[in-house]
Protein 1
Amino acid sequence: MASKGKKGGNASGNSDEKAWEEVSRNEFVVLQKFVGEKAPSKCGRVISALSGNSVLVVAEAATADVLAERMGEFEANTKLFISAGLTPAKAVETLRNNNLTVAFKEMIEYANAMEKVDKAVGTVLYTLAAKMPATCARHRKYIAELCAAKKIRQTNVEAVGKYMTRVGDKDLDVEGFEGDCGVGVVVTREQIAAAIAAAIEPVRAELVAERYAYDVMGIFKGLRNVESLKWADNREVKEEFDKAILCILGEKTKEDMEAAKKAPKKGKKDKIRISYKGNVGIASRAIPRYDLVDMKDYVEMSYEALRNSAQYGTGMDFEGASRYAAANLGQQIGGLKNPEYYNPYKNYTWETLIDQSTGKIRSDAKAAWNENWLDEISDNSAIRTEHIVSVNGGSERANYVASLGYYMEDGILQNTDFSRYTGRVGADSQAKSWLKIGMNANFAHSESSYQSFEDASTSNVWYTAQFMAPVYPVYLKDMAGNNVRDADGRLQYEYGSEDDNGYANRPSAQGFNSKAELYNNKAYYTRNSLSARSYITFGTVREEARLYGLKLTMNFGTDYTDYQRTLVYDKEHGNAAQQGGRLSKTNTRTLSYTFNQLLTYDRTFGDHSLNLLAGHEYYRYKYNYALGEKTGIVGGIDELGPAVTTTDNNSYSHNYGVESYLARINYGFKSRYYIDASWRTDGSSRFHPSDRWGHFWSVGASWRISEEQFMENTRQWLDNLTLKVSYGVQGNDNLGTYYAWQGLYDYTWPNATDAGAFVDKLENRKVTWEKNGNLNAGIEATMFGGRLGVSVEYYNRKTRDMLLKSPLPISTGFTGFNDNVGSLRNQGLEVSLRGTILDKRDFRWDATLMGSFNRNKVLSLTGGQDVITSDIRVIEVGRPIYTFYLPKTAGVDPATGKQLYYAYWTQTVNDEGTLVNTRCDEYITDNVAMATLSKYYHESREPKLFGSIGSTFTILKNIDVSFLTTYSIGGWVYDGLYNGSMYVQYAGNNWHKNAKRRWQKPGDKTDVPMLEVGGSYATASNSLIDASYFAIKNITVGYTLPKRWLKKIDIESLRIYATLDNIAMFNHMDGMDPQYNFTGSVAYSYTPSRVIAFGIDLNF
């Protein structure tokens, strides 16, 4: 609910106003004067850093120490938010909204210090932070990492926002979420080009014969139904389609233009065409696992860590430390209850297992079990299948299409799956020479069972199973190490708790079992969606008509989604065991519609071509959410009725609208010179009526140099050479809330039988559109009859008036307010080469090579600041936004085995005799505290160069072979998972094999310090991993049967194929996935799937 609230007092220059204002029932007040009179001197620096109109909120009776503490919190939180991409003013405004502060702060911290990002990432990240309700707290880390890694982008942010709003605090169906929302899906230009080529190929002969008189746009419209392009950038699809048509047909001639005007585009279709596409495949994990030590190494390294703590921590000699380690090994690994239960080597006790003279397990020790947790939860032969049947046809005046589809995949996690049924119908008709109408509708029904936990939660099976120490069994054992089966002879899960058998006491993930989480808990959903589009066009197709070229088109589209999710948590084990199990039901409904009216005029007069457009558009979005949750469930009944205690009931709705007016002009002269200009104004319900409208424009020009007289001598080999340049300003209204300007009240504070509320968000009537200025300049060329194509494009994008939260002192009771702050620049170069290397009678080789680089720079930060640091990254004017800023290691001390660091801070005693930190010349130390203070600039995550390489081979005209690879050179990633396995903090977590090269005795020279469990280390440069990689994304081999074989059985074409997706990736760290990651962090969730599939394309 939105409401106008009280305005906060502005103490600056307003001394006549009363000293304080009451702004909440907690008697917090706005008091600039109090700050000046009561603040201790040590807070002076903080006060001077505040902007002129900023105020602090403190209790009336607050002491100076309380104020100092509040201002310290304010400064720390402000810096944290600025490091996440907010300007200082926006960070202060954000701190005025307590809910958003909590959400954004957790997303920053849990994602290993988010940072200032470009428009795409920053907008998405902040949008979702603000959009997700407080009940989504447990999902924030996962979502933040996906946003930072650009696995959530503008193409799918709406889907993600809707999905997460429905999820709330319930378990997230990760597989279903990522599948339904296109998370991590990056459709490259090569993939777009391949899909376009596949769409063109069945009609290529007709297209070449009819040239531009063929229904070219019909092919393009058909791309909307190509599943692989669902999450593709529409602009890139259009550009690649235009390039493909140009490569096949060349530029339009005057004859093409005349032929295209004489008849409706689809007039030649007068037969029914039936198509079937189907494939079946097997999916498995695509990314290798982290290379962790085995059971034997784990036990020996645990023993060594204990010995190190005694020998180097307390000063024992080697023999005494060895005895100490042997005596305590059982308790560290096996727990306090009965340590021998977790000893897999049953012919020895923990104390006698290790030969103390060598530190190794005795040679005759035999393990009673060796169960790999990740193996137990994985399915490396998960089935995936897809089938699509379509019918299309038409006549001179009408065309229709209908299709049905089915998709099913088993997850690479056991007991997870996803299925989807789809249907589509469409028709259009040239009813009269002056009237054309059409419509299409798409329906989808999907169901999924999934694993609902993410991040470092113990219930996140990806995390727990991957790093669980190998000594712990998956299945329940007796003291002799034998499996204990139930009454039906089935294996039982080992939960690591005393309830299992009276003596289990696993020190890690006690009460949990990763495989049991998949089978005993339930998380499933169904989703039904309907999308419909219709249009009506008034405008004659008769050239002799006076109004030929003038058309009025009205388009109407609507989208409806109904989503129902059920979560059931086991009543015997896990998170809800103490509550007797927990069950929740979530239902959401989304309805949106778009209505536009477009008036166009398109004519050619001799050497002049003119295209004009004027239009109006209205978009409306409505969302409804309802949740019910109970505990004390009845096993086997997934309904709320039988459950005992209601723990949550909630519902809410959202409404949003945008109205737009637009105009465009395109002019061409002699098919050589082109100019275009556009203008639009958009009004968004997110903003106050006085600042609701944003005005945006663009201008552009292109010059077909190849058509000039002075280029005549090149026409034998140069088909096209075009120079183009454009500049435009686009707008963005997405701040992550539908109520950007309003003051809001939180009505979740009941007062007995009456509703209770307090001001939750301050209004700002001046917040308005974010603007993005884009300069693009490029050159395109095709040569040798289309055999070689070159495209080079430079872009420079400046974002200003960025929509972010402007923070306020947290002591005001508000985290901030919505505002326009900050500026950022992205610039880069994209180069594309496409060519036919060989074109023989029985062999053709087409290849593509793409390379890009992007450089971003922070241009300004509000509040006069130039540098903001947070954890391991820095935001600094003039630097890339992905720069790492963290301590620098100096190797390992050969004498002590301790990690060494460079430092420029030290501790000294001041005149009062107090120990203080003092800046000094650089030196080397093992002092973690001083190293943590001494941060250095390192390289950023941003790659030096990234792109793709692909090729298609046609052999004997019937065999096609293609591959697609991607690459990235340069950049760094901080892999927290790897860091945690090198510097183990908790007993029960496994070590990485790189820890085997650790320091073991004085004189050892290595880069890995001595083993410790729970040791103190600075997060330093040795945890940065080179993010360069080379990935083989796809290999496809197909065979198209000769048409002469098929004519006899009335088949138009038949192609059989085998395809391999995500085949291999070569990088600097097994287990790490640096793809699509542009902020330098890693995720705790699903890895990409490797799929081997076989299929057919059949056309009648």
Note: Residues 64-83 form the longest helix (20 residues).
Protein 2
Amino acid sequence: MALTVFQNQNTTYSNKDQFIIDSFSDTDMDIGLFFGVSLNGVFFDCLILSPKGISIIEYQECSGRLEASDFEDWIIEDSKNNSVNIGNPIEKIKNQRFALMDFFNDNQQENLNKIFINKMSGNLDTRHISFFLFFDSLSTDSNISLGKKISMWFECVSKKTFVSEFDGLRTSQFTFSPDEIQRFSNVVEISKIKNEQISIESKYCFVCDYSARKCDQKNINGYIVDIVDNIITIQARNNKFLIEYQKNDLSELQLIKDFYLNVHMRMKVNFEINLLHLIRPSDTGSSSDFIITDYTIVTIQPSWLVNVTDFTTLSFCERQAITKQFSKNPINEPILKGISVNEAIKDLIPDPDNILTKKDRIHNAYQSVGRYLRNNIIECGVVGIDSGQPKEDFKDKIKSEIKNIVNWIDNRDFKGKPKFEEFIISPELGLRGKLDIVFKENDEILDIIELKSSKKDYFTNGIQFYHELQVVAYCMMVMLKQKKKLDQSAPSVIYSRASVGIETNATLNFETFSNVSKFRNILLSSSIGLKLPMDIDDHHAKYKKKCIACSNSDIYKNISMIKKRKVSSDNQGLITKSKIDNFEYWYDFLNSSKIDSYLKYNNLMHKSVESRKQKGKLIEGEFVYVDKVFNQWKYNVLLSDNNQSDFRDKDLVLIMEKENYYDGAVKVAEIDVITNSKCEILVNEKIDFQPRFIATYYNDSSDKINNIGLYNAFFENDKIYRLFYDKVDASYNDLIKDLDVNLILGPPGSGKTTTICNKIIDDINNDRTVFVMCFTNRALDEIEDRLAENDYFNQNNFQDIVYRFNRKKYHSNNANQVSSGKIKVFLSTVHGTRSEIISKWQKQFDVCYIDEASQLNFTMCANGFLGKKNILVGDFNQLPPLISTKLSSKFDTNTIKNSFFENLWDKIAKDNIGGRCEYLKVQYRMNKEIAAYPFSKWYGDFNVQNFKEIADGRLDYKDDNWENDDFREILDPENPSLWVQVDSVSDNQDKRVSIDEAKACSQIIEKFIEYGQDINEKIGVIAPFRRQVNEIKNLVSLSVDDVDKKLIDTVDRFQGSQKEIVIISICSGENDNFLETDYRRLNVALTRSRFKRIIVGDMNKAGKDLREILNDGYTQKIHWNKS
């Protein structure tokens, strides 16, 4: 083995690392160097594992005479008698040492046993850890006075004495063989790097390809820890750099400072920065390590992936960088036309493998446009182009643009094969996007073309500024990925409405590169700080017509009041201080959550394949093309291993050629169905590479909907804000009446969905327009299916009256029969309210129903209230609002954690305002034995009654053969509530999967099926984690064919569902188990069954709330015999 180097992929390589590597490069000793290790939040510059033991290495970038003691600050004096206080590192050093000891000893020495599987752990003393703090050089008269205990394991050394001091270490009882070093790397999830990778200059710099001045440092990535004037201090893993900002454009420096203030100082979030193309200072006396010049590409918070298409939102007005996050996605004629032309161009550009005549290509293009318009008949209706002359005029405009594109194609040479909607991600540039058209040869992108259904720049008759940024950004991402410049001269934009010369080339040089990073940073910074650089914001006074024409001008005015804190003392005209404070509180929470989510996703995607598989975030398999289904391509993926992932039906995912999204080709896909052995996926474009992996995709749709709801409550409909924040008094009563707010609280099985559907049918009969908003598609499915079964639709066409937003059911033959003018009921998830379609279709509905309201926080729920009458339906004892990040103390409040529904119920029900709180007091789902525990524990104050016909109900069998089975106690209808005791295995390495519980669940299911219980209609299985869900599915599928995909699911997905038999696997012993830590999820799990509830798990590892069910007087305990 000799020397092996391991490096965290999230960190960059430094000169200091090279010194340590060089120090051991000639050794014959088996040594493992680990750079960038993080254990339980504690970071280590370097760890050395060897036959001598384990050593922690830290580095101080200074030289001179050191004065050091246990408790005082350490002072180092250089040769010029300049003294520097470097603090006292002892506390940090102790924390690192203890963190390393805890790493080996926690959980009954779990990691120790994984690494030293061939040694007796009792012989390993994890206290035997040495520590080296080394300096560039230390003078011989340094005064280092440390206590005896610390001196036993701690050494201050200089570079020149480091190796000799290491060689002088006594061999401890805590030593490492080559196999143990490799196993350590597996546990800490840090990969070995190849010899050719051990170089600080390993990254490609595209700026150098377009500049006479080559860089001295291609890349530095790290966290900004300080900014003083134009000097930026960056902690790049285990090295600090002083970076001097010398760009002529100082606005980018101000962006960095603003972001540092908003993110690092105010929100207490680490501020990451990535720098490409750096120069060393020419002045040898400079204190700076590198200089940011006009050529340098600066990317702030690169893990936050900005969509490249956001550049085009700036083309009308740069203030859109602020307003776009609070405005709904627009729908208008130019947008529909642009999408239609994009559909057409896929047929117009010739494919070398499928050569068609010009006439055939134009015909196919018209057909594609027609299909798109038919499939979006409602969108066409709300913008007034679904019929008559407006429709014909619209078609003529598209035909004119198609003609321009065809003439351009006839006079243009193309190299390579055309591909469309090529997805690309660049974590170095903090960008993601889809390229309209690329031409590829041997899997390499040669040319990039962006289509715009518009005209060229009015003043220059050339490429528009922000369109140029968009294609240059794509080009930068491609060059970084391919590690070379494009073969074609430059990317281009084609303007299909231009009269002549529709193609214009972008310029590739340091100025356009730098502008891409600058405006990307403006988009991000303005999303956090709600402020544009002054030079950009001021120029709008020159273009007042733009502000008059802008539909978002009010948004900018209102947000400006927040930022400038224009407070009104008399509450008239301006905005109150409390309202500003509340807006900023919510906005800080939403942004800190976003940053945290992006960082987690980026860290996940840099982990090894095996690590991501173990976490359930990656699956591997063979992709087989099936067919084209409407406008999507379908593939079967034959999984290489049994599915143990977190993936489920309808998830958006990444399909990848290589293990990392930044190396090989990537596409976004949707999982249609996933089973034990295969996965069916749908993609918008046929895959032109050989994919191997399916990985998680960070979908940021919730970010937008939260911001829109926030703005809506504070400005668009101020009554929603007051409803949430105001105290109950006479004016509050008037507010309730004005919004006509009504609450329906329905315990499990009380018929919330039935109540909603009955009310909707009544509304239809009374010619009222209805909007229904749900948190999940599953809840919307339930309402849609229940409505469709109503007798009313025996006489009326369902699709004429009920429209499901974002569910394309309108294809070819019946599409023309649908008209937006006939629709009375509009169904949408909360995410659908991002679009203007709803508000353009109906300014205000007669009635708005918000189902699952107890799962919606303030900002989500504020997207509802679209009716003259607003009815919120929910149960705050069931699933709460989903919070994807661990809350800091600032945000760990009921304001954030509780639903809007619970907030209103506490106010309105307490004072019984106008009889507006309805409580559904009869449950129709479960027999009395199953209902007893949850209803007495969580609904004791509401006196819920059991429906008589159900209270004594029992599971029915076709015969009595089950009575002779060994499983008869479990099968017995007279035992409605059971606990099947499965003793947990103490050495279970993955507590989110319990194999024994999964086997028990599978065998119990088989027995019910054997005695006539329909697996798809009558049986359900609930588990707290997706991985346990998939483990049970895998086992069941081995013996049962044609299993319903909804048979086994998580607690969250099962809310609103019911089965006659429900089996609950509790994953015994998992500390982060929702069934243990959140009573509301436990309540949902316990109340899904009608006649038989079986809890499977170890009661000795279960939480108090769950164990208490054994005292309800009904639940019986049976010990599971594994044989």
Note: The CA atoms of residues 307 and 432 lie 5 Å apart.
Protein 3
Amino acid sequence: MRQVHDVRILDNINDTVRDDLRAEIKRGSRVSVTAACFSMYAYQELKKQLESVETFRFIFTSPTFVKEKAEKQKREFYIPRLSRETSLYGTEFEIKLRNEMTQRAIAKECADWIRRKARFKSNTTGENMPGFMTVDTGSAQTAYAPVAGFTTVDIGCERGNNTYNMVNSMEAPHSHKYMRLFDQLWNNNDKMQDVTDVVIENISTVYAENSPEFIYFMTLYHVFSEFLDNISDDVLPNEGTGFKQSKIWNMLYDFQRDAVLAIINKLEKYNGCILADSVGLGKTFTALAVVKYYENRNKSVLVFCPKKLAENWNTYKDNYVNNPIAADRLNYDVLFHTDLSRNNGMSNGLDLSRLNWGNYDLIVIDESHNFRNGIGTHSNTQENRYQKLMEKVIRAGVKTKVLMLSATPVNNRFEDLKNQLAIAYEGNSEYLDKRLKTTKSLEDIFKQAQKAFNAWSKLNQEQRSTDALLRSLDFDFFELLDSVTIARSRKHIEKYYDINKIGKFPKRLKPISLRPCLTDLNDAINYNQIYDQLMQLSLCVYTPSNYIFPSKIQKYKDLTHNKGENLTQTGRERGIQRLMSINLLKRLESSVNSFQLTLMRIMELVTGTIDAINRFEKYGSADISMYEAGGDDWDMDDENTEFFAVGKKVKIELVDIDWKSWRTELQKDADVLELLTLMIADITPEHDSKLQQLFCLLDEKIANPINPENKKVLIFSAFSDTAEYLYEHVSKYIKNKYGLDTAVITGTIDGRTTIKGFQATLNNVLTSFSPVSKDRDVLMPDSKTEIDILIATDCISEGQNLQDCDYLVNYDIHWNPVRIIQRFGRIDRIGSRNKVIQLVNFWPDLTLDDYINLKSRVETRMKITVMAATGDDDLINPEEQGDLEYRKAQLKRLQEEVVDIEDMSDGISIMDLGLNEFRLDLLDYMKRNGDMDKKPRGLHAVVPATDELPEGVVFVLKNVNNSVNVDNRNRIHPFYMVYIGMDGEMICDYLSPKKLLDDVRLLCRGKTNPIPERYERFNRETDDGRNMAELSALLSEAINSIVDVKEKSDIDSLFSAGGTSALMSQVSGLDDFELICFLVVK
């Protein structure tokens, strides 16, 4: 029998509180505890004793689980409270116990016990209450103090992070004071709130069956929680208060508003942002809202756009009747991409010679992919546009933020993307490096990405999937893109936003493919015969340099070599020669008429050159200008190539040339050209099958519109010659037969129509063609003019909204499939009033394989002439071969369906690259379901396995004491994801988080309810969570894999550039990782 008044000291080393309680608590005891937190693992340690008590009362000493009166409190109060509440499922020092994964069974027993025996109250005030505990067995009363919390650490099973943990154990009468104190507190309703139900509810979440989707979001929440700061609405600085009342803000759809906020955030943080939403998602309006925000803060804004889009941008800032946002009084300047290379003159109402280029705070670059050729790609006789932009605008004067709008920022070189980004950080990548969370520098990230891409493009068609590429890209790259780009596709919008508010996209009908033959004349020729002749052409008229005597070559090198540039005259000539040979093909496909014109132009050049040589032979003097190509011969993409950007003509003296062999070659060409001209001479418009088929198509469309009453047709051609030829014939036909009007727009013709007295400017023509989307009633209120057929070149294939029209014809197939989609984007737009839209493609009359092979034959042929002339053995390189394969695959798809740029299997789209998908998923979930930080860790769900994703477990772990980030290779550190098979084999290790997130998404998304047939089996196998040995073993295996993979990559790093990571960090074991959640794949 102990002495009364006995006070004992429990040091929790030799004598622990746990052992003392096990001895003291008798059947029927009443236990009362005041402490900061309650952990179910402490309950488990004393389970037998606690089961026998009569009542168990618990007071939380600080507000815990109480109803919040205010909104979420300030962070500093919130975090400690959160940890008090989550310690219900174990504190940070009980990780080891949680990793045994038996929490489910424990929670179930604990909740059951609480329902029968326990009550919880919480202090609702800010007053301090030191913790203590009393046990009343009826015959004896004992008090324990101080008690910080009711956890395995406090009762002495674990050391936790205490240096010492001494507890006094007191008997009556000391203990009576404590018991009275407890009763007073318990009954003080002003300070206490009963929270028993909340505790039960929280603890039962641990053993509830979870839906797979919930586990997916739980994973995202943890992995991306730090990213989340940059997507909440509060990021908007307060001074922009007027911004959300603006007219433009109220016209935006939700998805556009999200983009605006994100853009402002990125501009503030990184100085630059690329908005790459796909075609038809209204980037202009999104950008206008950003402009409004900055103008509200008195910043000056400049918009750079292609000349053809100027009308659009001007409309929104001027006080015009058709400006829907006139009330916002926007005040930005608009200039054209081309103005950058002019130093004086007027442009769009601004005097360029006096313009203060350096004074703009924000620059919006529309269709910014036109700036994707960075410094040093054109021959710099004068600075190219890109450099001008850098020098004049960005680096000079005030700090400039840059917003770029582009539907296709990644073509096939990541370089393009890098150059666009470079604009934002003034060409000095360190600016951006400082702000990004990436480990490598920007230059390295892009080098690595390009390397991965090149390796990938050499794979054969079957293996070359987007997935394969994503796996080889570094996570840094995703992070970078995530930081500075916003890209959503139609699919995103349809998936994450309420489509009924936005208005649907029109339904795309299956494309119609037409293959008219060249002509209906009996003895006339067909494509193949012409191709055979074309293959005979050497086009040597473009490459006089090939014939210069070796001894004289240096002389011309010095003459033509532009400063510091590597594009020599020879290179240029060859470029033009090659372009021209392909161009002949393109033009033949476009129309017989265009082909004829080009033949004539080349013929003139050849005969002119032969005459000059003959004169020289006779009189001994004559010189020849190198050919400068004229604009009409080329389509928009070719026109912009660097061969034409150089302004120098160089005279070559015939004395220095082996003119005899040149003349022989030229003569051969002249004969072929003459033959070709004869072959097609008798194909007049009446016998031009393609043109006649177009007439039939128009008849059909006008007689049976696909949407009621809609007669409109938009016809695209790559060449202005073809467009004018079509206009000449189509307009007459349509006017005479139906009385409808036609218009044409090309790079050189602003507009031309069949309407008498109509002022045919670009804008008027487009407005009459698409009156609803272009606000005709407002702009020309008295006008009832309708243009029903519009023929145009690619100069309007970007940025115009012509969605009144529902029928688009590609009169020639563009070599670059992206163009085709760009064109279709004019009518395939959000909020279209047409139910369905139709795409019609004219193909040359031969099989696609022949068609593609033909192109490669021409290319090869040109290269052979180059080799013969120079000994270069640059035959088609694998990259181009791959390119042709792609084009083939793409064009094949376009015959069957209309695809989005992002879905073109060929390169990759920026959509695939970010982690945006996951972020959007999570945001969307949080908007509907609130925060997830109170949810217990260690939850799981059971999902069915698939063929690709076999049975196993996906663990999501968090490294708790930063002892890991193994060689900094894990991009989502401190989180680690591992997918391990039931047999302990790795299915996917932690180094490919993007792939794992995709897998989890695939397994879980859309499964909003638990799957009984799967989880019941799992529960039977684990005895309802009591026997988790197998899984616990897999967990250790998974953690070891993180350590192992680390050791392997350490060994690799010993031999790699950039030093070793072997000495940097070590990984210990289980205690360093906390199990966030896991997914059982059955």
Note: The two ends are 59 Å apart (CA to CA).
